[in-house]
Specification:
Layout lengths: L2 H21 L6 E6 L2 E7 L2 H4 L6 H13 L8 E6 L3 H9 L4 E6 L12 E3 L4 H21 L4
Parallel strand pairs: 3-4, 4-5
Antiparallel strand pairs: 1-2, 1-3
Helix pairs in contact: 1-5
């Protein structure tokens, strides 16, 4: 499998996680940690569910991956995530020594925060962006409908 088709394959799995986030009422970000073409961690945002500001998809998937291999050094892994990681997650990526990160939709607020890894941006970008935009459009419409003006 070529890098491009492999990236799309695993990004689709991250998109499945993001879809689970939507069902849970969470911001639709999904992440998948891969080692030797095997998924060793997968998660979606769970900030609201866990009432934990650090419960981002990337953080949970990194924790699962470290547990799966029995080491916090994830030197031979790839992180696939539907949205460009925030500075907190970029820090965790660096600390875990993840050598490669592949993301879908860019985030202007997080641009350039990943400096300790090779980055592949824009994989299935349109699908990732549409999921995020659709979620926030629905959220705004619900807020407007419940406004007691």
């Amino acid at each position: 499998m070529s890098d491009f088709s492999q990236d799309e394959f695993f990004m689709r799995q991250a998109l499945q996680q993001a879809a689970l986030a939507v069902e849970a009422g969470e911001v639709p970000v999904g992440a998948v940690m891969v080692r030797a073409q095997t998924v060793i961690g997968r998660a979606y945002n769970q900030v609201e569910l866990l009432k934990d500001p650090t419960a981002h998809a990337e953080m949970i998937a990194i924790t699962q991956a470290a547990s799966a291999i029995g080491d916090w050094r994830l030197t031979d892994t790839v992180l696939y995530v539907t949205k460009e990681p925030c500075p907190m997650c970029a820090g965790a990526i660096a600390l875990a020594r993840i050598p490669r990160v592949v993301f879908g939709a860019s985030d202007p607020q997080s641009a350039g925060t990943i400096t300790a890894a090779e980055v592949q941006a824009g994989v299935l970008e349109e699908e990732c962006r549409e999921l995020l935009q659709g979620f926030f459009k629905t959220l705004r419409a619900q807020a407007k409908d419940s406004d007691p003006q």
